[in-house]
Design brief:
Layout lengths: L2 H23 L3 H16 L5 E6 L3 E6 L3 E4 L7 E8 L5 E8 L5 H9 L4 E9 L2 E8 L4 E8 L2 E8 L4 H12 L1 E2 L9 H20 L1
Antiparallel strand pairs: 1-2, 2-10, 3-4, 4-5, 5-9, 6-7, 7-8, 8-9
């Protein structure tokens, strides 16, 4: 074999080795396809929607579809409504509206402070009501309370500076009360009802 032929063979071998090395080191197109597929799937994940809950006792609020609302039935005539909302994070958010013996928020708060250590206390507006917000307990809970016409309004959730604080704030801002629904019957209404019963009884006696 001549030197010229040997040189050509060597060159061909070098070219083949270079081509094989280039193919081995070249990024695979499949990997890029997988990355694009993952990105598309992430983009297709739906964001939570905003829903509206209307309570039969006379209030409504907006909440994330990430939450589930459950009515808690209590054998207590002083409770107008009791709700529990659970979500994707541990814990729950509670809303309760009920009668109270305290005439105003200041009296209620003073009584609470004799039984419970509360922190981060601040005044807030809750719809048309003046309320107080504070944290307490371990694990820490954040609570918003208003008292009006001997009716107490309570909203409570874990104080996590994240998921639950965000959910609680959203409900707090959107919650609207029909306060007339929580007012006890007046004495005039009770008298009228009693008078009607007496009339019926008199008619029965006449017969």
């Amino acid at each position: 074999m001549s030197k010229k032929v040997k040189l050509v063979v060597i060159v061909l071998i070098v070219i083949v080795i270079a081509a094989v090395a280039w193919l081995l080191l070249k990024p695979k197109a499949k990997d890029n396809f997988v990355e694009r597929e993952i990105s598309i799937k992430q983009a297709e994940v739906e964001k939570p929607k905003t829903l509206t809950y209307e309570d039969t006792s006379g209030f409504s609020f907006d909440y994330s579809s990430d939450l589930t609302v459950q009515e808690v039935e209590l054998d207590d005539n002083t409770v107008y409504s009791s709700l529990e909302l659970s979500g994707s994070e541990p814990g729950k958010l509670t809303i309760r509206i009920s009668d109270t013996q305290f005439p105003d928020l200041k009296t209620w708060q003073k009584d609470l402070e004799t039984k419970q250590v509360i922190n981060e206390v601040r005044s807030v507006n809750w719809d048309d009501l003046k309320a107080v917000e504070f944290s307490y307990g371990a694990p820490k809970l954040r609570k918003t309370v208003a008292v009006d016409n001997k009716v107490i309004y309570e909203l409570e959730a874990p104080a996590d500076n994240g998921y639950w604080d965000k959910m609680r704030e959203s409900i707090l801002v959107s919650l609207k009360f029909d306060q007339s629904a929580f007012k006890p019957a007046t004495s005039g209404e009770s008298t009228t009802e009693t008078d009607n019963q007496e009339v019926v009884l008199l008619e029965e006696k006449v017969e």
